[in-house]
Specification:
alpha/beta, TIM Barrel, eight-stranded parallel β-barrel, 17 helices, globular, binds zinc ion
């Protein structure tokens, strides 16, 4: 399947809620290049983020292009319309060249029995024992299981097809990168299910270059993975083997790879990802977003003075509106509100104390994952400050951008790709 515009082997999705950190983010990719590894930057922002911040998709491309121009980046970069559907994609048509077709809501939507039967009939190769290169255990799929997976996922893949064709109708085929995402749902997709999904994606004619399944374990916003890293590694490497198999068997784009929607900072599974990529030669797209916004706050707190006061004000505002801010993210955060310090207590904190509580250093005794998760979803408070917040970002740019670059490079790119 010819996909036209191609995504590089390694890529990093960087979210920039307030469109002020594109240069700092690009510097992380430039450092990776200097160390010998190309990591293509992709600026992603979902419709949900745009609505909460009050921004328009064009602002993401403008910020990315300005950064690329100013820093002289000559490799590709992309702008991802993250988690869009038929209802939300249109506002992204002019500014994006990467579309994440989110069809999680369509999972389990009852598929036509005749459709399921036709799919299984068309794919006898899915049934039985399937040996996959790089996997000790073959996949074993019974006819019942294949039909069950088809019934569960065919509707979602069809929906992805509708969105894909809608974009093609407006932009032309080959002019954009397609991701299919199913991560924002309750149950993980198993490797055999992923194979069924990929066969269906091929049938649907979607030249997917990245696929974002839901993995086992919890991917809470802004904090580390909750689950057994060894089990994740098994699942992740099986998924990588399934993708290589599906590319060869179903003619999907040769650069098809996994997209891990990290929810920021899944440090404990990075070694498993790194070793699987090294062993298999597979590529990866790692999507982050909120981790950069939290580094903005850390930079502001580190700068001290008025900037620190503003960071404290964001926390006080987030605490006061905790319930409302957490609601859209309820399935991806675990906040124990009894562990949240009062606004009064935080008001007395030094720069060091504030950054120690917020910075994602699990070994630090003062690190507070509850406060970090609340602030992760609390960007609406900063958005409502408007110009006052943005002006402070500019005033404290040195501290903010230093933290943004350091975080992306040292905590994400280096452990994953170098
Ligand atoms: Zn996602």
């Amino acid at each position: 399947m010819n996909s036209g515009l191609q995504l590089g082997k390694y890529s990093i999705g960087v979210g920039d809620r307030f469109a002020h950190q594109a240069k700092a983010q690009l510097r992380a990719s430039m450092r990776a290049v200097a160390e010998g590894v190309d990591v293509i930057p992709v600026w992603n922002k979902s419709n949900r983020e745009h609505n909460i911040v009050g921004s328009e998709p064009a602002s993401v491309r403008q910020a990315a292009e300005a950064a690329v121009r100013e820093l002289g980046w000559t490799r590709p970069f992309h702008v991802d319309a993250d988690h869009i559907g038929l209802q939300t994609v249109d506002r992204f048509l002019d500014s994006s060249d990467f579309y994440t077709l989110d069809v999680a809501d369509a999972i389990g939507r009852p598929a036509d029995a005749a459709d399921v039967e036709a799919f299984v009939g068309r794919h006898p190769e899915l049934i039985g024992t399937i040996e996959l290169a790089g996997l000790d255990q073959p996949l074993a799929i019974t006819a019942e299981r294949a039909a069950g997976a088809a019934a569960k996922y065919l509707g979602a893949v069809r929906e992805a097809g509708r969105i894909y064709r809608h974009i093609v109708g407006k932009k032309g085929s080959g002019s954009f990168i397609t991701e299919v995402s199913m991560d924002e749902t309750d149950l993980p997709q198993t490797p055999p299910e992923l194979l069924v999904i990929l066969a269906a994606i091929s049938d649907e004619g979607i030249p997917a270059q990245t696929i974002a399944p839901k993995f086992s374990g919890r991917f809470n916003k802004g904090v580390d993975y909750v689950g057994a890293p060894a089990q994740f590694e098994e699942e992740f490497s099986a998924d990588v083997a399934v993708i290589a198999h599906a590319v060869a068997r179903y003619g999907l784009p040769a650069n098809l790879k996994l997209s891990v929607h990290s929810g920021s900072d899944k440090f404990s599974i990075y070694p498993a990802i790194h070793s699987t990529l090294a062993r298999s030669g597979a590529g990866l797209h790692l999507k982050t977003a909120g981790t950069t916004w939290l580094e903005e706050l850390i930079g502001l707190a580190e700068a001290g003075g008025e900037s620190l006061e503003l960071a404290k004000e964001v926390y006080a505002g987030a605490l006061a509106h905790c319930e409302e801010l957490c609601k859209p993210y309820a399935t991806v955060i675990d906040i124990d509100t009894t562990r949240l310090p009062s606004a009064g207590e935080v008001a007395g904190w030094s720069s060091e104390r504030f950054t120690a509580a917020l910075r994602h250093d699990p070994k630090c005794a003062e690190f507070n994952p509850h406060l970090r998760q609340l602030l992760h979803v609390g960007y609406k408070v900063a958005a409502q400050m408007g110009e006052r917040y943005l002006a402070m970002l500019v005033a404290s740019e040195e501290a903010v951008s230093r933290n943004v670059t350091f975080n992306l490079y040292e905590r994400h790119l280096k452990p994953l790709f170098l």
